Structure formats: C-alpha cells, structure tokens
Amino acid sequence: MKNNTNADEQEFTNQDFSDIVENNCPMTNTLKVIGGKWKLLILHAIMSECPARFGELKKKMKDITQTTLTAQLRELERDGILSRKIYAETPPKVEYKLTPLGETLVPVINTIIAWGNTYCKSNL
Amino acid sequence: MKNNTNADEQEFTNQDFSDIVENNCPMTNTLKVIGGKWKLLILHAIMSECPARFGELKKKMKDITQTTLTAQLRELERDGILSRKIYAETPPKVEYKLTPLGETLVPVINTIIAWGNTYCKSNL
DNA sequence: AGCATTAGTATTATTTTTCATACTTAGTAC
DNA sequence: GTACTAAGTATGAAAAATAATACTAATGCT
Fold first, then answer.
1. Which of A46, A86, A116, B97 could serve as a FRET partner for B69 with CA atoms 20 to 30 Å apart?
2. In this structure, are A47 and A65 located in the same domain?
3. Overall number of domains in chain A
4. How far is A22 from chain B (nearest CA, A)?
C-alpha cells in the first residue's frame, strides 16, 4: 500500500481519511444511489403516490424530459430502489413502486422534506 | 380543485401537484442548498472537523479541484450554511464552519450517513 | 382505414458541471 | 533576494447531464 518511509513523497498519509478518501464512505455510496438532480424528486413523487405510472411522474415533474425520466428510473431500478411492473395492455401501462429497500429511504426523504419545510421556506 | 367535468381538455387539473410543480416544494428548495456532487461531502467533512481549513477539505476530498471546492464553499456560504473566517496571516489561513443554520443540517446528514451504513455497505 | 393512446427509444444539440493548468499575493525563513 | 506557504483566481478544455425533437409499437375506437 503506502510505502514511503521518508517524507519527501508523502501525500495523504498523515491522517486517516480512508472512509472519505476510499469508497467506503457511506455518504459517497448513498449519493451514488440518490444523488443527482432528479432522483430524490422522483422518489418523493413515487412515495406520495405508490405505485405511480410513468405519465403521472412526468406530469408531476414538469421540467424533466421523457428521456431523462426514463434514464433515472432505470438507475433506481438497477440499484434496487424501485420495481417496474409492465402490464400487457394497449396503450402500455407501467407501474413504478418502491421496493422494500426503497421503503427504507422514506424516513431519509422525510427528514430532508422536513428540513426544507422548516428552514428553507422562502429564503432562496 | 378538480373542475373538469368532461375529460377532453384536462392536463394537470385532476390532482393537486402544486407543491411539486411550483417552487414551494421543500425537496426542490432543499436540493438547491445541498444538491450537487460535492455539497453533502463538504458538509460531512466540515461536520466531522469543525472548523476546517481549506487545505484540509481539499485533502479529504481527494478528487475535487481547488476551483470547484472554492465554488461550492462560496455557494454554501451564500446560502447561510457555512461561515468563512479569514485570518490575517501569511501564508493565508481560512476556517470554514457551520453556521447555526448549517448545524440544523447535521441530523439530516446523519440520517443519510446512517442509511448508507445500513443499506449501502457493498452492494454497489 | 385512420386516429389516439402510453411508454418508451434514438439521435443530436445544448447546457451545466467539473477539470487542468498556470498565475497571484504577502509575509517569513534562509 | 529567493524560495516557500495557503488560499485562492483566471482561463480554456473536457466531460457529464439534460434537453429537444422525431420516431415506434400494439391495440381499441370510430
């Protein structure tokens, strides 16, 4: 690993920042799942109307494009947060809902919402 | 609220999504403050060593550039989350710490960290 | 037959974010 | 008087995210 005995080549060895520097940082890991411009908004929307259909989500998040919404939903599905149920109907019907893992995010999201309600009323 | 008797002109009137569509959404507001790739990591770092100097933050977040770190810190300062204290020394010394408003984010961040610790161990 | 519907995909363009690199400043130590 | 330090700034390039637009597919309705 770090094999510099004299100090003219040392870079980050004088303190243990491993949980931040390396990839074991829970914040970094969490941000991989719920980070980005849309994911928390999508989850919030699905939380408040579960299951949610694609078209409903798109209406709720007025400014998202179809392409982006699809991409974000796929990532959330890939990460085990959402499930996607396709109905064999015409026109197509697809329902998104939180998986059990996704449900564990509900208190996290509620905490964020609560902060916004209390401290972010109109100061921006 | 819902005043569409015949269904051929309705667009967003069949349910009240105003808190998501308009800018009063606490999630949207919160994301303006703590959203983005770096802000939560910066706050986490300052939380765990408060006050924190610029150089310390940069070392902890190995992959951020000076320019980006400065920009993010300025936004957090602008939004009232951080304070910046300049010491009239050479070489310069600047300390960042959470404001009282910033302190109110501590439980939010801890909630996110806790979720990461519990549910995000190694599945990504 | 032709039209509307939903949940997409494909492609290209644009915007936003981040990065890389070089430069600055004022003291202090050599 | 030269080098070093910390915390930046300036500039341009690159990468990532997001958007705009057009297209598809299956089927029910008229």
1. A116
2. yes
3. 2
4. 9
Q: pLDDT, tens digit, for every residue of B56-68?
A: 999 999 899 999 9
A18 and A58 belong to one structural domain: no
Q: Is A10 on the interface with B (CB under 8 A)?
A: no
Write the residue in A26, A41, A101 that is nearest to B28 by C-beta. A41
DSSP code per residue over A26-82: HHHHHHHHH-SSSHHHHHHHHHHSSSEEHHHHHHHSTT--HHHHHHHHHHHHHTTSE
Is the entire prediction scored with pTM above 0.85? no
Amino acid at B116: G
- Here the tokens at position A123 are 């100061």
Residue range(s) defining the domain that contains residue A88: 35-122
| Residues A62 and A115 occupy one common structural domain | yes
Give residue for tokens 């204290």: B85
Whether residue A48 is found in the same domain as residue A19 = no
CB A19, CB A12: distance < 8 Å: no
pLDDT-above-90 percentage for chain B: 73
